[in-house]
Amino acid sequence: MVLTVRLLDILIGIDGPDHLIGALAMEFHGGILGSLEGTHNIVWNGLSCRVDGIPETIDVQDESLIGDVTRMMIRRLITMHKPGVLLLHGNAIVHEGRTIVFAGESGVGKSTLSLEFMEALYPKASLLAEDLVIIDPDGERVHPYPRASRLKSVHGDVYIRHERQVTFPALLENSHFIFLRHSDSQQDSQCISTIGLSVWNSTAARIVKRHASSSTAIDLCGKTPLLRFTKSISHRTISLLRHELEANGILVMTVHEDTPIRSVQTRPLVPVFGKLPVPDALKAAMRNLVAPLPAMGGSLMIAMAKALSGSQCWELTPGGTPTETVHSFLEALSAA
Known about the structure:
Elements (H helix, E strand, L loop, with lengths): L1 E6 L2 E6 L2 H10 L4 E2 L6 E6 L2 E4 L2 E6 L6 H16 L4 E10 L2 E6 L6 H11 L4 E5 L2 E5 L4 E3 L5 E3 L6 E3 L9 E2 L4 E5 L3 H6 L1 E7 L4 H11 L3 E4 L6 E4 L5 H13 L4 E7 L13 E4 L2 H10 L10 H12 L2 E6 L4 H14 L1
Parallel strand pairs: 2-4, 8-15, 15-21
Antiparallel strand pairs: 1-2, 1-3, 4-5, 5-6, 7-8, 7-9, 7-10, 10-11, 11-14, 12-13, 16-18, 16-19, 17-18, 20-21
Helix pairs in contact: 3-9, 5-6, 7-8
């Protein structure tokens, strides 16, 4: 079974097991069952994946990883065929002609906040992108990434589809970029201990050796290869490691964090918004880029600076309820 989705003006065909295609058909708005002429294909044969334009075969060690690796391959196809675009880990909504982008680490609340903003600004707000924000600095547009929203819970992920889904690009000018961060107490209390990979091979070994050779133990006993960090390792190192692994077709699926009980503190009672100057916003945006290509070098930062230059940038430390966060942002916006 084949599912074809259109992202920007790229047709991407996904050929794989029925359960994968069924899940992706529910997840992506506007997907068509069937192959179309001019499609760039992602083809699964067992646990091996072949992608048009990528010479190497991508292998995984467990069937449960096929969906996540497929999404990663979609991102690679976008960067291959649209090398000027920027992929930001985040969500985006459109409100009265303005784009509001939420960016941050996994689990910080991007999907929850974007849904809460849409509810508070109903019926004048619509979802533009979920999980991946596609920015074209030259065309001054933010392109739709029409996925269902994914909310994380202790019982597993919940996907929510939206009637108010934008299917055309939004203006980049006068956008708002909101960079979510954990509170200082949460950041200090969290220590990354383990990450899981889709596959362990010589490329993965070389990348890990370069970034964290003295801090890593490899566990290959289970279906999923695990990197266990035997020493404290910074979030920046984790980010660099993740980017280079994913740029080489190796998915970083999970990040487990140990939180020492003695260090646990409560979140602030109220959300805190702060206006970010462009240099600080640029640093925050670069941290949240999805698998930046090393070959782009400094041009990547120049492109991101251009994307942010005509926008208002904010830093948000979540606290209280999502509704309080929405109202705090609207107050900060009116006072700016």
